[in-house]
Amino acid sequence: MRYAGEKKFNVWTVLTLILLALFLLFVIYPIGMLMVKSLFTGGKIDLSYFVKFFTKRYYWITLVNSFKVTICSTLLACLIGVPMAYILRSVKIPCSEFLNVLIVISYLSPPFIGAYAWIQLLGRNGFITKIINAIFNVKLHGIYGFAGIVLVFSLQSFPLIYMYVSGAMKNLDNSLNEAAESLGCNAFQRVTKVIFPLVMPSLLAGMLLVFMRVFSDFGTPMIIGEGYKTFPVMLYTQFMGEVGTNDGFAATMCIIVIVIALMFFFIQKILGRKFTYSMTALKPIEAQPVTGHKKFWSYFFVFFTTFVAALPQLTVIVTSFIGTINGSLFTGKFTLDNYRNIFSKGNTSAITNTYLFGLEAIVIVIICGILISYLSVRKRNALTGVLDVLTMFPYIIPGSVLGISFLYAFNGPPFLLGGTAIIIIVSLSIRRMPYTIRSSTAIIGQISPSIEEAAISLGASQMKTFIKITIPMMLPGVISGAIMSWITLISELSSSVILYTSKTMTLTVAIYSEVIRSNFGNAAAYSTILTLTSIISLLIFFKATGSKDLSV
Known about the structure:
Layout: H1 11-39, E1 40-41, E2 44-45, H2 48-55, H3 57-90, H4 96-108, H5 111-122, H6 127-136, H7 146-170, H8 174-182, H9 187-216, H10 219-224, H11 231-242, H12 247-274, H13 292-319, E3 322-325, E4 329-334, H14 337-342, H15 349-378, H16 382-390, H17 393-396, H18 399-410, E5 411-412, E6 415-416, H19 421-444, H20 449-457, H21 462-489, H22 496-499, H23 507-516, H24 520-545
Antiparallel strand pairs: 1-2, 3-4, 5-6
Helix pairs in contact: 1-12, 1-15, 1-16, 1-18, 2-3, 3-7, 3-9, 3-11, 3-13, 4-7, 4-13, 5-7, 5-13, 7-9, 8-9, 9-12, 11-12, 13-24, 15-16, 15-19, 15-21, 15-23, 19-21, 20-21, 21-24, 23-24
C-alpha cells in the first residue's frame, strides 16, 4: 500500500533492505556454506560424499529408520490428537481448561525430557517396570529401541495435532453438522464426511510440524534408542566426531535433511491448497453434555490420555525432590539436595543464561516480527515477498542443521561468532521468530488501512502513524506470538547443543548433559525449573490474550 506522494525509495525500503540483509547473512549464507562444503572439493564439483552416504548401508539405514519412526509417530499422534480435539470441542468435560493447560505443557517441554522421564518409569529399573515385573513375574527390558522412541514422540507430539484441529473446529459452522444429521447421517458419518474434510488443511499443517519435529530430533533417540540409530543421531555424532577432519560429509548430511524438509513442506502446501475450505462459523460447535456409555468413554479417553501425556512432567517434578546416590540412584527420601547442587556456586550459569539469552532474543523477535509483518501486509512488493519467504526457512530447517551451518559460516573469518553468546541469541531469534511474525501478520490483516490513512491525512508522518497508531493496535497479536516464541526458545536444544560452550550453556543443554552423565537428580531439578517457567509463561499468555485455550 503506497500513499499519495510517497517516494519509491523511503524509510520502509531501507528497513526492508536491512532485514533482508540480516536474513541473507544468517540464513542463506550458512546454507550456502553447507552446499559449498558438500559439493565442492578443491574448487571442483565432487559428489563423493553423497555417493558415500547412499552406498553404505551404515549411513542410509539411519534415514530409513528416521522415516519409520517419523511416520509411525505422526500417525499415532493423529489417532490421539484428532479425537481429543473433537471430544473437548463437542462434549462438556469437567476441568477442560485445566486439561488444556496440561496438554499444551506436555508439548512445550523438550522431547528428550519425556524420554528421560519414561526411563525413570519404564526403563529396566523403572518404577512401573518393577511393579509389572513383581505382579506378573516377568522381566521387561524397558522402553528402549523403536517402540520406546515412537511412544515418547507420539505422546509429545499429539498436542500439536490437538491444537491445530481444535483451532479449526472453533471456526466450523455447526449448521452443516445439523444438516447432515437431518439427512440421516449418524455420528460417525458426520465426523468422517463433514467435520474431517473441513479440518483437513489444519490437520495437514499440524502433521507437517509433527513430522519435522520428530524427524529432526536427536535427543530422544540418543537417550532411549540404544542400538536403533536415527538420521539426526548419525548427523550429530558424525559432526561432533568429524568436524575437524571431514566436515564435508557432515555438511552433505545437512543438505540431505534440508532437501527432505523442503520437499515435505511443499507437499503440505500443495495438499493444503487442494483441501482448503473457506467458512465463517455463524453457529460454532458448542460442547454438549452426554450420558451413558458415551459419557464414560469420553471422560476416560480424555482424562487417561492427558494423565499419560503429563506423567513425564509430573515424574520429573517429583523426582527432583528425591535424593540420589552419586546422582543416578534415587534413595526414595525427599530432600532439596538436587536444588542445592544446581544452585551452588558456579552452577547457576545455565539458568541465568537461559533467561538472559531468552530475553535478548525475544526483544529481537518482537522488533523484527513487527517490522516484517507490517512490511509483508502493508508494503507488498518483490523485496518484502522475498523477505516473507526467507523468514519461513528457519521454521522448516531442523535446529541441528541450523547450528552446524552457523558453525561453518561464523567460526572463522570474516565472521568470528563461534563460542559467543551472540551466535546463540541469533540462532534462538531466527528459529522462533515465525511464531511472532505469524500472529502479528494475522492481527495487522484485521486492522483497516483507513485508520492509518486518517492519521496521515491529519498531518502525521507514516513513521509516527506506525509507532503511535499501528503498533498499539498490533500489540495483542504481538504479545501472544512473543510469549509462544519465548516458551519455545527457552526449550530449544537441537541448535544450542551444537553452538554452546561452557560459558554459554542453557537449561536444555544442562539437562541433556546431566542425563548423558546419569546425574538424574540434577537433571530433574533443571527440568522442573524449565517446566515451571513454561507453565508460568503459558498462564501469562492466557491472561494477556484473554483466551481460555491455546489453539493454532
